[in-house]
Amino acid sequence: MLSSLVCLLATGGAGQGIWPVRAKQELVISDSAIASRVGAEILRQGGNAVDAAVATGFALAVTHPAAGNIGGGGFMLVRMADGKAVALDFRETAPKAASRDMYLDGAGKVVPSSSLIGYKASGVPGTVAGLFEAHRRFGKLSWKALVEPAQQLAAKGFEVSFGLAGELQSASPLLSLFPESKRVFRGDGRGLEWGDRLIQTDLAGTLARIRDRGPDGFYKGETADLIAKDMAAHGGLITKEDLAAYKVVVREPLAGSYRGYELLTMPPPSSGGVAILEMLNVLEGYDFAALPFGSSARNHLLVETMKRAFADRAEYMGDPDFVKVPVAALIDQWYAKSLRASIRLDRATPASEIKPGLAQAPDGNHTTHYTVVDKDGNAVATTYTLNTGFGCGEAVEGAGFLMNNEMDDFASKVGVPNGFGLIQGEANTIAPGKRPLSSMVPTIVLKDGKLFMALGSPGGPTIINTVLQTLLNVIDDRMNVQEAVSAPRIHHQWLPDQIAWEPRGVAPDALAAMEAMGHHFARRPGRMGSCHAIMVDPKTGFRFGGVDPRSEDAGAAGR
């Protein structure tokens, strides 16, 4: 039972108005109100932000199966109150048996859906190892105390929300392809409805092994046997050896600045940190705050900047343990100046005319995000994923969790779009042990050396531009954190050459003006991202939370 002292501050997309949720001491925001309460209860018991992040991550694996996971991977950015900051990379890795052309047919063409559906689409999961490494480095409470709430949720069940029922219904065609997934998430085909109780007995057993044995309860022993057996039976490549060999990589956060604010963000193999710093460097050269929100002039600059950053992403970004990524050059101010010089204020540059630009420079959606700030000012921003909703669709028989389809984040073939329409370059081709390129970008913002904001988002490639626009909304437009995450967004990823936009996000006159400049809009608007942000008031120290209304079941909890 969660303590009554833990205040549920917002649920079900609460915070849809203009006022942020508030807490005096500590705050947790995630895509599941239940998971947020789990994290807040850990804080109440004396745990720190990392403890709460670990517990929230495991709880999301139970309550948010579309993206919360132990069968996937991701990134965690930790910034402790004493200034110590690390970026934990627990991204999935390609199995030892993976090969560059594994998704091509005899004619050299990509086999449709081969990198998206079924076990062959899965990389070696990293989430359990990543959460354990975070706890090992920074945790205060026992490991068992952090996994136990999720294990109990799985064993005793929880009430299916309206939002989860809708997600399961939408995923029915995928989940119904696999008997075990159908059994676990479709109620033997009947379909789980709003108000039903979802009990996940096999997942509870898996979590109990993780609780009692740590990572060895997942990467070795019974759970590893179950994964390897299912893989061998269904054409997957992951072996017990792959699982036992998995390692978390501890990286130094990327650092940058924008208008006097300091930013800490994820380095490669996340492309997001480099892209955001590159775009902020470009936009800092304009009087962006003087351009009205939603105006054609503002959106034009945003789109032109996005195009150039995503062109560079396609060409240069990959796993830094396998390829040389020119990070310093891409986030250099000289390079930003050259990009600004290529932007015309009266005309859109066609994507076909935009090429990766470092030759001019000197040498030099389905994911989930949650954010935690504790009473001492420790902050954690975590983004982890199965890739697309419900991953590869296959639940491990006897273990009760879904596997990822992260192999689609590699370039199945250079120049051929992946499931998100992204063009992938040579640097991101498949190789054993390699980590696929990612857009996930948990980010922490400081002002005068003190914690100011922590944020991140799901959404495939839209993650990058969601976080970018949320930062601009706060820093340039002086929106409060709830207004910033609720505000409509636009997105351009270089190719295809079109602007994605949200309902009521672009006024008809602004759209017409931009089309006259040569921009192309998607035929219909759509939702993008689910940014959960926490801001610390510099005067009072109160925690202000922005709960993204795009997430049906999102919630904040704290005190």
The tally of structural domains comes to 2
Structural class comes to alpha+beta
> Roughly how many Å is the radius of gyration?
22 Å
Q: How many beta strands in the DSSP annotation?
A: 19
Strand line-up in the sheet with most strands: 1-19-3-11-12-4-5-8
- So what's the overall shape? globular
Number of helices: 18
Describe this structure in words.
Strand 15 and strand 16 form a beta hairpin. The protein is an alpha+beta fold. The N terminus is likely disordered. It has 2 domains: 222 residues, no CATH class; 215 residues, Serum Albumin, Chain A, Domain 1, CATH 1.10.246.
List the defining traits of the structure above.
single chain; 18 helices; disordered N terminus; 33% helix; 2 domains
